[in-house]
Predict the 3D structure of the following.
Amino acid sequence: MNAHPITEFELHAYVDDALTPESQAAVEAHLARHPDDAERVAAYRAQKQALKALFRPVLDEPIPESLHALTVQPIKAPAGRGGWSAGGLWQRLAAGVMIAALGGVGGWLAHGQFSVRDGSLARIVPLSHQAAVAHVVYSPDVRRPVEIGADQEEALVKWLSKRLGTPIKPPKLGGLGYELVGGRLLPGNSGPVAQFMYHDGSGQRMTLYVTTEGTEKRDTGFRFAREGPVNVFYWVDGKFGYALSAGIDKGELAKVATAVYDQLDQK
Amino acid sequence: MDSRAILAELPRLRRYARAMLGDRAAADDLVQDTLERAWSRLAQWRPGSDLRAWLFGIMHNLRVDQLRRGGLPSTSLDEDAVADVAVRATQSDLLEVMDLETALRQLPDEQREILLLVAQEEMSYADIAALLGIPIGTVMSRLSRGRERLRLVMDGRQPSANLRVVR
């Protein structure tokens, strides 16, 4: 029963529930025999709870305007090297996401003033709707969600690149918990477009719609549209228009869209 | 680094800064400096990585810089000088939560920050070690010393050693 002496560190790890079940049991056995240590551990526990509660009210305070303003990159952006400099790129991204946030769930500005829901932005890049429809059509498909699966990714990339007439490949989103399911070719307004499908561990599906139609080198920041149950982030970058669609929370989708944007831009 | 994600971290950054510095205005200044530095170091941000850890790390480094320059008041006590801790006399009818905050101020910075990261931010020891750029053993020893010191300070005031928060 005295397998090994309990260290001070183990007592603290016990307080923080950071022990394996075996070590936890060993500490508990130790505490049962050493009331002094047991008393100390109880005090640390209470202390931890009290510290946790102490500044909790700060979480509910309104964010000061000076800090709110800094959620977008300050205009005097440093490190501009022209072209795709990090500053310029992120500034556009941040601005785009900000626009999205304005119309959003937590929108703190009046919706009437800055409505992105009335389609005024969507009309400039009517991509979001196409993408959302394609998402709704194919993502629920259990047996044939894609034409070519991720197990033949190379063939998929080759085929879609050939059909779109320019190299494209699916971004890797494994770091965010989304694995490639595969992809398919779809008809756009006047020619072929591509759709890549991803899913997460729970089976939640997400599609990335890639088109070369109507982009005309008119880069845009992120835009957001809600098409029924589907949230869409879309943007134009170079000769491609992209739309990322999923039935997930906008913040989560924005995170993935940011990663997609970043990867595709690094080519 | 997108606006919504940053906005989502602001309450925690403010809370941590407040807990570390005590003063509201100084805390918000620190958060502001943190955001400004984050934007200026955007090239170092890896999309998809942990935004909270990155921002907390920046805040920590700023705080270290400020302390080094002597720009902020600090309680720089020798880590082992438990016996020298001065227990400020306060009225006995103060709420215990007030006592705890006062006691927290008695801790050296490097112990206070770890107590707060563990209790308030519920970070793992490994995450804290990575955040602060110190070995995990150092995290443990500071945690251990900090907790014990806080307990003694509280005990010195209140022999019952009752830390429970009222309300």
Remarks:
- Chain B has two domains: 1-75, 106-158.
